[in-house]
Design a protein that fits this description.
Layout (H helix, E strand, L loop, with lengths): L3 E2 L3 E5 L5 H8 L5 H4 L7 H9 L5 H4 L2 E7 L4 E11 L4 E8 L9 H15 L5 E7 L3 H9 L3 E12 L2 E11 L2
Parallel strand pairs: 5-6
Antiparallel strand pairs: 1-2, 2-3, 3-4, 4-5, 6-8, 7-8
């Protein structure tokens, strides 16, 4: 089994016990802009998702992991999406749920673990992420992990009736 453990946090697979945690995140309107969500999710739908979360990344083209501290407290989620084995690339998204757990290094530690996993175990050549132009903390997080800003998508997302630009960042495994 591959262990994704850092000094302060570890990444783990989704468990049925994560239902309430994920339900809270998916239905928190303040997080919808980050996750590109537009409608609430029922516990029923999230339970179905959890029932299928064990499927192989090569089959479902995505992987969601829980960011946990060593007190087994779930801090957030980190995702691999748009997994493209042929072209050896994938997107990455990350979310730390509570404000008081942000800017403490948990996101950076989780991102480093996931990047290492993607390049070492999945043999990916490149990773990318999409970040709203005004999300300075995420820009800093990904930049500090070596991601480069490679473009700006103008008027990409509409949030509260206003269009917002979105950056695309990329990290190529040298």
């Amino acid at each position: 089994m591959i262990t994704l453990k850092g000094e302060y946090i570890y990444l783990r697979a989704l468990e049925p016990e994560d239902l309430d945690f994920i339900h809270t995140i998916e239905n928190d309107e303040s997080l919808w802009e980050v996750s590109n969500t537009q409608t609430p999710y029922s516990k029923y739908l999230i339970k179905q998702y959890l029932d299928h979360a064990h499927k192989d990344i090569y089959e479902v083209k995505q992987l969601r992991l829980v960011i946990s501290n060593y007190d087994d407290e779930a801090l957030g989620l980190i995702d691999i999406f748009d997994f493209d084995f042929k072209n050896r690339r994938a997107g990455i998204g990350i979310l730390i749920k509570e404000n008081e757990n942000r800017q403490k290094g948990y996101g950076a530690a989780a991102l480093k673990l996931l990047v290492d996993y993607c390049f070492t175990h999945l043999d990916l050549h490149q990773l990318y992420c999409n970040i709203s132009e005004d999300n300075a903390l995420s820009v800093k997080l990904f930049t500090n992990q070596g991601f480069e800003k490679i473009g700006l998508k103008k008027d990409w997302n509409i949030i509260n009736g206003k269009f917002k630009n979105e950056y695309i960042f990329q990290l190529i495994n040298k």
